[in-house]
Amino acid sequence: MPYPQLLIDLNKLEDNVRQMCQDMATVGMHVMGVNKVFNGDLPPALALVRGGVDVVAESTVANLIKIAELPCAKALLRSPALSEVALAVQHADISLNGEIRVIQALAREAERQQKNHQILLMVDMGDLREGIWYEDEAALVRALAAIVEAPFLSLYGLGTNFNCYGTVQPTAVNGETFVRLARRLEEQLGIAFPYLSGGNCTSYHLIDKGIMPKGINQLRIGGQYQFGMEFVDVKYLPGYHHSCQDADLCASNLFILQGEIIECGSKPTMPVGELGKDAFMRSKTFLDRGWRRRGILNFGLQDIPGESLHPVDSGITILGQTSNHTIVDLEDAARPYQLGDVLEFELDYPALMFACNSPGIAKVYL
């Protein structure tokens, strides 16, 4: 198989899912397994199910279609667009919602298809991404009424999210505010939320510290099992497969990018001539280190961002990228790499996301 390629270790992935499910079950917590980083590929979704997850979430309807044969419930991890409501009802058992008009459209479509659809109503607790603002309880009541009154909709739960946009961290304080809001809504409407979905993998640090507010009984998790990390305190978790590199890199050895050297030799470290901007209209500065050995790899910024790659050989340094080239310094490498040799890199989350979505990078499941 030609390079570049991304190696994904399914055995380690499944082991990490199993560890995650055990850790969460110990504290009475349900897991919605998030597969979105893999662009809807079926093998990692199967690893989720084999590891013990019973709901797999994707961020697009197109990716839900890819995992249609998966023997579990499927969730759309965002609100359906009005234009895709029919597809959402057809392919998702659950969807996250924060717009009453979308909920009403889902109700009509679910009745037309004669198919039950579950709603996780989202509340914005301050991170400024999806959901009804937490102080607008009247809007929350209207949305909940639209759900419980629709014959083919059912209430999956009340959810919130942290860290993804506004960088607001999950805390015991905002978690308890969320739970109190849920209890007021339950009392006012005479309902019970099956799940209070308290966030993503960053919310796990509340469990790790023993301060998760009572009542939150679900998290929607991807990065924890993919990287074996707790992301707030940035540390590796016991019992998980993870990188041997510094935890601050947030990399994982479950995913190895391999790129082939397509040009190799020594060149000066300072460009010759009048400097302007690069292909992406960026100005650059260079340090004159004399002549050094370097290589060019057969992938570039269109495939994956270089700052998110971490060479397995610690003597290699990434110098920069163009759209379809990655340039590396090989002077201090562990061995004298030559034309045609393959270099390996561990990936952080952005790199994994780009690699899985790049048609130029082959995916190899181990």
What is the typical, i.e. mean, pLDDT?
Answer: 96
Report strand %. 25-35%
Described by the principal axes of the CA atoms, the overall outline is elongated
Helix content: 25-40%
How many DSSP H or I helices? 10
**The CATH top-level class label of the largest domain:** Alpha Beta
Q: Radius of gyration, rounded?
A: 23 Å
Largest sheet data: 9 strands, parallel
At the fold tier of CATH, the topology name of the largest domain is TIM Barrel
Distance between the termini: 14 Å
Number of domains: 2
**Low-confidence parts lasting 5 or more residues at pLDDT below 50?**
none
Care to describe what's here?
- By secondary structure, this protein is of the alpha/beta class.
- It has two domains: 10-240, Alanine racemase (TIM Barrel, Alpha-Beta Barrel); 252-365, Elongation Factor Tu (Ef-tu), domain 3.
- Helices cover 28% and strands 26% of the residues.
- It is built from ten helices and 19 strands.
- Strands 2, 3, 4, 5, 6, 7, 8, 9 and 10 form a nine-stranded parallel β-sheet that branches.
- Helix 5 links the parallel strand 5 and strand 6 (117-124).
- Helix 6 packs across helix 7.
- The longest helix is centred in the middle third of the chain and has 18 residues, at 172-189.
- It is elongated and about 75 Å long.
